[in-house]
């Protein structure tokens, strides 16, 4: 239990530093209320769930990555899961480049959010 609180604190700090945007896709994320987030961006609940804020280990835990501030970023659930579903997951920097190239072509998230400058909470 204690470790999950620490991870949540690290995730929240990372999300704050990232202005509430995913480390990989740079889209806004939600932490508390998916329905309000969905209403704000005209998304269904299923679509909004993709943007849930998660703690992402830059260096995977299974490969020795620690729950430390320098190793934790905030990523949307979709980016976090997608990175780790691959048979050979890319390192964080390579995955970020991959996601951004897909975003530029409109081939990452099925629904693009209207970009806003204010951080989300």
UniProtKB/TrEMBL annotation:
<keyword id="KW-0378">Hydrolase</keyword>
<dbReference type="GO" id="GO:0004519">
    <property type="term" value="F:endonuclease activity"/>
</dbReference>
<dbReference type="GO" id="GO:0003676">
    <property type="term" value="F:nucleic acid binding"/>
</dbReference>
<keyword id="KW-0540">Nuclease</keyword>
<dbReference type="GO" id="GO:0008270">
    <property type="term" value="F:zinc ion binding"/>
</dbReference>
<keyword id="KW-0255">Endonuclease</keyword>
<feature type="domain" description="HNH">
    <location>
        <begin position="50"/>
        <end position="84"/>
    </location>
</feature>
<dbReference type="Pfam" id="PF01844">
    <property type="entry name" value="HNH"/>
</dbReference>
<protein>
    <submittedName>
        <fullName>HNH endonuclease</fullName>
    </submittedName>
</protein>
<dbReference type="InterPro" id="IPR002711">
    <property type="entry name" value="HNH"/>
</dbReference>
